[in-house]
What we know:
By secondary structure, this protein is mainly alpha-helical. The chain has helices at residues 3-17, 27-34, 38-48, 80-88, 94-106, 112-122, 132-151, and strands at residues 23-25, 55-60, 66-71.
Amino acid sequence: xxxxxxxxxxxxxxxxxxxxxxxxxxxxxxxxxxxxxxxxxxxxxxxxxxxxxxxxxxxxxxxxxxxxxxxxxxxxxxxxxxxxxxxxxxxxxxxxxxxxxxxxxxxxxxxxxxxxxxxxxxxxxxxxxxxxxxxxxxxxxxxxxxxxxxxx
Length: 152
C-alpha cells in the first residue's frame, strides 16, 4: 500500500470513529505519527478529500491550528445525485469529472457499468473533435444530463 493510500485510510478511519463523522487533525502531529513529511498530508488532503469527492476541509492556522474534514451533508429530501448535479457548475474538466464519477461509484450511488460508461463519455478522448474552448462546457452539460437521467 502506498503512503498516500495509508494516510487517506487513516483519515477515513478517524472520520468513521468520530461521533459527528468529522476528523480534526493537526498536520505536523499526523505526519509524525505516520512517519512522513507534512507536505505528504497536504497532498492527500488536496487530492483525496476534495469538494468534488464530497468533502469540505476547514483549517485554522497558528499554534492551536487544526484541519477539520467532513463529508458534505445533503439538504433534507435532496438526492445525492441531484446534489451533484447542482454542484457541477457550467464547466468541468476531465480530471474533476473523473473524480466526481469515482466518488459516486465509491458511495455506491451508481453501478460499475454506469461509471465506466460515464468515464468514457466524459474523457478528453471523447472530445478530441470539439473545439478546446467548448469541451469543458459540453462535459458539464453531459454529466448533468446523465445524472438527471439516473434520478428519474
